[in-house]
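Journal club side-thread
Mid-discussion, someone asked how the predicted structure for our own chain would compare to the paper's figures. Pasting it here so we can look after the session.
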Amino acid sequence: MFVIVRHGNTFETGDQPRRIGARTDLPLTGQGIEQARALGSHFAAMGWQFSRVLVSPLKRTRQTAGEILSTQANSPEQESAAFLREIDHGPDEDQPEEVVLARIGEDALKAWETGAVPPTGWSVDREGRIAAWRDLFEDADPGEATLLVTSNGAARFALMAAQGLSDAASTLPSLKLPTGGYGVIGCSDLGQLQLEAWGVRP
C-alpha cells in the first residue's frame, strides 16, 4: 500500500494564495501543523504502520511527515526523494492564481489539473517523474505500507505510472490533492495496482 500525502497549509487564513513550487521553501503554518497532526491521528486510527517514508526535500513536506510519524511507535527515518520535489512553475512561481491564469489560459490549466500536462514555461520532467513512480511501484511489497509526503504538482504523476491507475484517474474531477489530504494506491498479491482513494482529508 502506498499512502500519498500532500503537505499541510503554507498560507495563513486571509493570505492571498500563490503558486509555490520547488524554488520557494515555505514552512507549515499553525493550521498546516494541525492538518499534519490530524493525518497522523487518522492513520493511527486506521491501524496503518509505515515501513518506509519518502519525502520531498522541501521543509513543508518534511514537517508534515514528522508530525505524522510522531503518532507511530518505531517509525522509520525519513528518506529524501528528488522525484517528490514540487515542480518549478517557471514565470508563474510565487504568482497569484489570477496572474497565472491570465498567462497560461483556462485550457492549459484544465489540461494540468485533469491530465498532468504542464503549461508552457513550467519545468516538470513529466516522463522522469512517471518513471520514478513506476520503479517504486514495481518494487512494492503487498504486505508493507509506504508513506510518501509531497506537493500537489508532484503527487499527480503517481496516477500516470500504470494503466489501471491512469484509467481510474481519468474519472476524477481533478488530479489535485488538497492540502492536508491524501490518496491510497493498493497493491494486490499479484502486483496489480489500484486507486483506492484520492483527495481524502481526515
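Post-session note: Helices lie at 30-46, 59-69, 97-104, 106-115, 126-138, 152-155, 163-169.
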